[in-house]
Amino acid sequence: MTTLQLFMYAGAFILVLGVAATLLVRDLIRRLIALNVASGGVMLLLLALADRGDGEPDPVPQALVLTGIVVMAAVTGIAIVLARRVEQLDDDLEEVEQ
Amino acid sequence: MSAAALVLVPVFLPLAVGALSAVLPRRAAATLTVIAAVATLMVAVLLGIAVLDAGPVRLEVAGWAPPVGILLAADGLSVVMIGLSAIAVLAATLVAAADDHFAGGHAFWPLVGAAAAAVNGVFVARDVFTAFVLLELLTIASVALVALGGTRSAAAALRYLFVAVTGSLFFLLAVALTYGHTGTVDLARAAERADDTVIVGAIIALTVVGMAAKTALFPLHSWLPVAHPAAPAAVSALLSALVIKASIVILWRIVEYFGPLTDLAAPLATAVGVAGAAAVLWGGVLALRRDRLKSIIAYSTVAQVGYMVLLVPLVFTASDPQVAWIGGILITLAHGVAKVAMFLAAGALATAAGTSRLDGLEGTISRMPWTVAAIGLAGVSLAGLPPTLGFVGKWMLVQASLDAGAWWWLALLLGGGLLTFAYTARMLRATFNPPGDFSGARELTRPARTVAIVPLALAALSVVLGLIPWLLIEVLSAAPMGGGA
Amino acid sequence: MNDDTVTVMSALPVVLLLTSLVPALLIFALREKQTVLRTTLNLAGAIAKVVLVIVLIPRVVAGEELRAEFTWIPGLDIVFVTDTFSLFFVALSAGLWLATTIYAVGYLEGSPNRSRFFGFFSLCVTATVGIALAGNLLTFLIFFELLTLVTYPLVAHRGTRAALRGARIYLAYTLGGGVALLLGVAWLTLEVGPVEFRAGGIPEVAEFAARDPLTATVIGAVLLLGVGVKAALFPLHGWLPIAMVAPAPVSALLHAVAVVKAGAFGIIRIVEDVFGLALFAELGMLQALAVVASVTIVYGSVRALAQDDLKKRLAYSTVSQVSYIALGAALLSPIATAGAIVHMVNQGFMKITLFFCAGLFAEELKLSKVSQLAGVGRRMPVTSAAFTIAALGMIGLPPFAGFISKWALGLGGLDAGQPWVIAVLLTSTVLNAAYFLPIIATIWTSPRSESEGSDEGTFPAPARRSGWEAPASLLLPAVATALFVILFGVAAGWDYSPWVLAQIVGEGAWP
Q1: CA of B161 to nearest chain C CA: how many angstroms apart?
Q2: Which pLDDT score is estimated for B5?
Q3: By C-alpha distance, which of B334, B358, B362 is closest to B346?
Q4: Residue among A37, A62, A71 with most chain B CBs within 10 A, to mutate
Q5: What whole-number distance in Å separates Cα of residue A42 and Cα of residue A23?
């Protein structure tokens, strides 16, 4: 197996793992982490594409990855804020019930 | 060339106004946003004239041609969708300016600016990477908009976020595959260079899955009926009418450019059609069973998405794909206009009656006839009945299905309209006076005048466009599908 | 189409539409209390339409055809024309709209939501006139569907549970029919291009049918199915008796002017001006239509027998009577064609009179059942006389209008070599008599003997001092339409009488 293939398969595997967890896990923070793992898989795939075989990596996929990372950072930020709100609401409800 | 520079306006004007709105007081932010929407509408008209004149308007941003620079182009599809976006934003912001309940907070203004810029950008983007970035901007803005619906909307917004971002990852893979296979992200070049049936098929398949998640195409729809009603009314209107259109357009674009290149496209398109058919039925049946206005309207969106993707299988089977292409675009436009009207009118009714539940709306037809009329007319357009724009779209899709001998799609088009009108009529029935009580004894909180006028104006627009749709069709035909914009 | 027909581009067909569309939109904007302005607008529109029609009739009969067209989508126009048949239908609806408007103003006096009611009332007539003037199938379809939509709020007007249920069933049936019509229209348009009505049949359709008779038959059947719902052909008639919950003027409109008539008009248009009688017969559909119409005629009459509710009995009577039109259209004979066309008017005037009277009984005396009507003739003699005239006309007795229809249809049946039509007409006449004569007898006999002795005792005395048995705005339209029922029978031979005009219209289909 070449390094390229290794990257590809690893990326795909991590992506599938992440997406599956995103869909299956209930806990919000765990879900968020799973989503980040999935995105990691995609990034890995993209980086593999940057390998043109001559040692000089192609800059375009790297730019894609960079953008993807920025997007995921923003998404994660928003998600954490929302998750905190949700949990706070749940806590409040529990207090009311008690 | 000045016409080309116009392509930038729908993207950068809302973006700038949105950024300003963040620091301006509410009234100034609202005024600016409304002005920007009007300007965008005028630009859409100018672009339409330019397209009629000389075909697609192309702009190489900052003078750099692909593959280095970014190409933006407005063809018929871009122009009419920008027009829709301007009208939807104009309507939603007019209402939100008149009554803050419809906006949900000051963050509404900058977020609407960002969303409008992103949507318009998607409509003129001609490379998959730009489309991806704008789609992400749109997702983030939309999720934040949903969260304006108060503390309880956070869970709905989060659910939306997870699905939408997962969809993005799939699309990012498609982008990567496109680049890996063709060495470019530019759609036209990629389509020229692509030669591997399987890889092109995979690009289409990944796009279909990704966009299905973002558009709420059955069976990936379950977030939408939670997220859209959770938001304030003006946001619900924008989400249903506009935001999902961005991912639909990307799906169409990929089909437009890559569809003809691979034998795998046809079965994939059929799968999209089957999902659409299921959406029409499932969304329609559930809309019939909901008890809240906003929930009914949200399920209606789930159902209508089914119609919007129906052009995908039809362009592969009809002898003249242009008819299906234009018909599908018109049905999508009609849905946009009608949905804004419906959500805003529903918001007005809910504000007045103090509840969104159907059984709390008795007698509203006597007190707020115009608002109820807006819901009714919008429903007529959604059901594809004359004399509305929805009928024009349906007519063309029916023609395309007949032409292709596609009896399943035909039955769906014909039967789905009945389902649509069934839940519209159910909403209308709920507003009639209680038997024997003609005084409308219950006092309603009357909403502002703008809140009553805007939905009706949109509903009237559906009728006007339904009676004179030829201009839209001319614009769409001037830069036809696959015209290599 | 006559060879000497001259087509003139003109805005007049559009003006005919606007005479009811503009009042409709203005009325919607009125406040509830602006009664005088609303009534003025209504009557002005109705009178303008009647005047316009009267002016147009001689011109169109002389062979002039006014035409207006607009691009809808590239290659497909919205077309309005005033050929003889369209103007015939416009005249019918304009005349009866005027009568019904006067009646409705009186009927709804003081009740709520009148702006909504009269707005949709005018839209309903606009849609009907649009159907009449439609020059091609697309335009016909647009207004046919519009008619469905604008009558829904009228049927649901009262807002009671029964009204909403009736409206829902009405909508389900008619929208279902609309689906079939859309399929048929879109299909035929795909096969032969824009389907412009042409008396005697469209050559392109004939060519297409020669090429592909099976598809042509299926399209024809789908089109008939689409219009058959509104025409209440058995077994698509179920909505009509249920829609009776609507206020009386709406029932009158539905049964005599707009909905049912639009369906019947559509049948004639499709049979004679799209396919052409000869082609329709060749495809075997004319016979099928004749059978369905005959079954409906007998079935409607039998069901009417069993109804005690007066409006329901009238509704089943409509089911039966409207199929006379379909039957006439389904016979290969010029005189039957003319009979079908003239029955549109005759049935319209007779049935509207009956509904006006039923509304009068219900409004004045709160009577809605046949069995309650005993002796009502003494309390409301004028209304009862009008009712009697219209009912006798329905049975087909001379010298009333209905006789002309039955006589023409009977002759047409013989002419077409289908003598069994006579049997259908006789059976129906016997049944008509069986469900109308008892009503007439009940009305004119003494009131129930077990009442408190006095003849007047069973009914409340009139509340007004004028001495009239009912408000003039309710009574006069009923009397007027009843007089026309006599006039159309007696004066059938005069120039511009419905029968003469119907023969002119019918000639077109027989080049």
Answers
A1: 39
A2: 86
A3: B358
A4: A71
A5: 17
pLDDT at B444 over 70: no
Chain B neighbors of A46, CB-CB under 8 A: 172, 176
Average of per-residue pLDDT values in chain C: 88
- Count up the domains in chain A and report the number: 1
Q: Do C164 and B432 touch (CB under 8 A)?
A: yes
Phi, psi of A97 (to 5 degrees): -65, -40
* Cα A56–Cα B67–Cα B478 angle in degrees, nearest 5: 160
Cβ of residue A15 closer than 8 Å to a chain B Cβ: yes
What is residue B443's predicted lDDT score, i.e. its pLDDT? Answer: 62
Q: What is the CATH number of the domain that holds A47?
A: 1.10.287.3510
- Which helix (DSSP H) or strand (DSSP E) does residue B50 occupy? helix B26-54
Q: Is B323 in the C-facing interface, judged by CB distances under 8 Å?
A: no
Residue pair B375/B285 in contact (Cβ under 8 Å)? The answer is no
CB-CB under 8 Å, B469 with C73:
yes
- C146: nearest CB among B387, B422, B436: B387
The DSSP call for residue C309 is B
pTM of the model as a whole: 0.92
Rounded Cα distance, A29 and A25, in Å: 9
The DSSP letter of residue B72 is: E
Cβ–Cβ contact B170 with C under 8 A: no
Compute φ and ψ for C73, nearest 5 degrees: -120, 160
Residue C456's pLDDT is 45
pLDDT at C450: 45
What confidence tier does C160 reach under pLDDT thresholds 50, 70, 90? confident
Domain boundaries, position A31: 3-97
Place of tokens 């639909």: B248
List C-alpha distances in Å: B480 to B51, B334, B427, B476, C179.
10, 19, 38, 6, 30
**Tokens standing for B458?**
């949109």
Interface check for B432 against chain C (CB to CB < 8 A): the answer is yes
DSSP symbols for B258-306: HGGG-TTHHHHHHHHHHHHHHHHHHHHHHHHH--BHHHHHHHHHHHHHH
Q: Which of C182, C189, C208 to probe by mutation at the B interface, max B CB count within 10 Å?
A: C182
Binning pLDDT at 50, 70 and 90, where does residue B484 land?
Answer: very low
Coil, strand, or helix at residue C64?
strand
